[in-house]
Amino acid sequence: MTKKRILPPDRMAECEAAHALFLAKKNQLKLSQKKIADAAGMTPAAVNLYFKGINPLNAQFAAVLARMLQEPVESFSPRLADEIRSLTTTSLSVEKEQRSSNESEMTTAELIRGMLARGGKNLSEDARRRLIAVASAEDGGALEIDYYRPGVVGDEVWIAHYDVRAAMGGGQIPHDYPEMLQDVRVSPQHLREMGVEFKEHFHLKIVTGWGQSMAPTIKHRDPLLVDISIREFVGDGIYMFSWEGHLYIKRLQWIGDDKIKMISDNDRHPPQTIRATETYIQARVLLVWNAQLV
User: Fold this and answer.
1) What total of structural domains would you count in the chain?
2) Of 107 and 31, which is predicted with more confidence?
3) What pLDDT shows up at residue 159?
4) Per the domain annotation, does 192 fall within a domain?
5) Of 10, 38, 11, nearest in space to 204 by CA
6) Quick one: 91 and 45 in the same domain?
7) Same domain for 110 and 169?
8) Is residue 132 located within the same domain as residue 233?
9) Span 52-81, mean pLDDT?
10) pLDDT class of 98 with cuts at 50, 70, 90
11) In-domain check, residue 294
12) Under 8 Å between Cβ of 128 and 136
């Protein structure tokens, strides 16, 4: 039997510190390895490999973990905290020197956007927005720094808008990597008061529906609020899912014997029976933002 590679003592200590901090705060914050995995875009097994010291921590996972634990990265890995700081401060310094020597008219926010595009993959989306917000304020802007301004109820969060063009007709071939178009700031408290049920706000995304088969419930190009943590059938409802290589938004109804009925909300497309094992659920639709002309 081949023995597994043992991490160096300093890397092992980082993993142990991260795991200990997770155990200390998981009950208070109602965390689980699955929640952290969902936020980091990985499997719970991958998170466990970090906590058990089998895989060394990296900056990307450290940034997500710090946000979930509401603790600075320094609390479990000063090394990675320095790496993240180095990425932002050193690169920004170099960019500013280049701007000065070339008499460039680029703003600080533009420089940071360029820096993040080239080397900011290890930063969380939250950290990226904060950097741009600070830079915009430095340049005298007001739009980006509005990210810090508290909302009416003080609980506004940003929800990413993805260009996946989920189809509600014959199906569309999804992008390999959905591109983020824009963000929407909403109040989780207000959403819950409207009857929208979800566990964590970072599971929520905005997608745009395309097609006519779900009208009048969902019209062509209606924005949809979806929960991407729901990756399996959890009851009759409207889901975003892939089937035979195409992406759909339809009602799904369990009919037993590993079969699901795919239903449109009008007679443009007749119901179809599909196999659950061939249906890959990507999210559940929670809310339709209909824009009604008046």
Assistant:
1) 3
2) 31
3) 79
4) yes
5) 38
6) no
7) no
8) no
9) 90
10) low
11) no
12) no
In the listed set 108, 131, 148, which residue is the last one of a domain according to the structure?
Answer: 148
Domain with 100, as residue range(s), is 80-148
Which residues are paired to 176 by β-bridges?
Answer: none
What are 209-253's pLDDT values in tens digits? 878 889 889 888 888 899 988 999 999 999 999 888 788 899 999
* 284 lies in the same domain as 196: yes
Rounded CA gap, 171 and 175, in Å?
Answer: 13
Residue 24 lies inside a defined structural domain of this protein: yes
More confident residue, 130 or 59: 59
Angle of helix 78-101 relative to helix 108-119, nearest 10 degrees, comes to: 130
Asked whether residue 63 falls in the same domain as residue 99, the answer is no
Which pLDDT value is given to residue 90? 47
- Asked if residues 89 and 64 have their Cβ atoms less than 8 Å apart, the reply is no
Q: pTM for the whole thing? A: 0.47
E runs forming strands in 129-278: 157-167, 179-186, 204-210, 223-227, 237-243, 246-256, 259-263, 272-275
* Phi, psi torsion values for 109, nearest 5 degrees: -60, -40
Buried residues in 150-164 as b, exposed as e (16+ CB within 10 A): eeeeeebbbbbbbeb
3-state helix, strand, coil in the chain (%, to 5): 40, 25, 35
Cβ(166)–Cβ(208) below 8 Å:
yes
Average pLDDT, the chain: 76
Residues 21, 90 share a domain: no
- Residue located via tokens 């997608």: 207
Q: What count of other Cβ atoms lies within 10 Å of the Cβ of residue 35?
A: 20
Q: Which residue has the tokens 């603790």?
A: 71
> Which pLDDT score, from 0 to 100, does residue 239 have?
95
Determine, yes or no, domain membership for 293: no
